Amino acid sequence: MLVADSSAAADWRRFRKELADAEPEHRREMLRRRANQSRTTDLAMIGRAGLGHVGGDMSVLDILTTLFFAVLRVDPERPDWADRDRLVLSKGHTAGALYATLSAAGFFGAEELETFAAPYSALNGHPNRVKVPGVETNTGPLGHGLPVAVGMAVAGRLAGSARQVFVVLGDGELQEGSNWEAAMTAGHRRLSNLTAVIDRNRLQQGARTEDTSALDPLDDKWRSFGWDVVTVDGHDHLALLEAFTATRGDRPTCVIANTIKGRGVSFMEDRVEWHHKVPTAEQISTAAAELAR
């Protein structure tokens, strides 16, 4: 198991305190810059490894950054704290985005990122909970994250815990039937401590979601299973923050975050080939310059 970087964890705590005290527009800018730093880190990781899922990493990073740097009750130096909030990355193929975020928060040292997807590295192409602190469950086979998160929410309720459970899903992943069994169970049990976040970039491997197996009207589908639904711009950090921290009713919440695959890199945005295409060194340099603006 990797160990925390105490210096990075201290920086994370200072960031969160400054963010909490900041005016809204400064808060937005802080989160935007933090997310773009993780995008740049992720690009370098994928370039070194020669593999990854760069398009989905770019689309989900504003969601992960907002959760880890503004919302989740976690402690990078106590990753097994019993009453911590839980984050399940169901779209486990975007592990690079999660690793970049966890490292920036101090769950482990930044030097570990250089081993991404290398033989014997703890940082596999899909996250592993026995190797990486901050990873709550192994994911990769799509459709598994939400069922596990439902179990976590039930366990939290039985324990009388205040912890919240968040699960981030890809939209193409919703074509897996196991998600809808879990959604039905969560609605039936009124798991108000559970939030599902849909990375709605409308692209999956090889095609658009609506051409493969149409999901719309997605909001009505979730409501029909007994969930409260909020639709937001998935790259608007303040909108995400409001959706994640709003007072909950007595039902689970689904946040449909409309995103752009390849977000932040002009030649990747909304291009299906960047699902798992690996950028060249020149493309990484160009992308890093765009993200630094």
TrEMBL record:
Keywords: Thiamine pyrophosphate
Cross-referenced Pfam families: Transketolase_N
Keyword Acetylation: no
Cofactor(s) it depends on: thiamine diphosphate
Keyword presence, Metal-binding: no
Transketolase N-terminal domain boundaries: 34-284
Organism superkingdom: Bacteria
InterPro entries: THDP-binding, Transketolase_N
Family from the record: Belongs to the transketolase family.
Protein's UniProt name: Transketolase
Lineage of source species: Bacteria, Bacillati, Actinomycetota, Actinomycetes, Micromonosporales
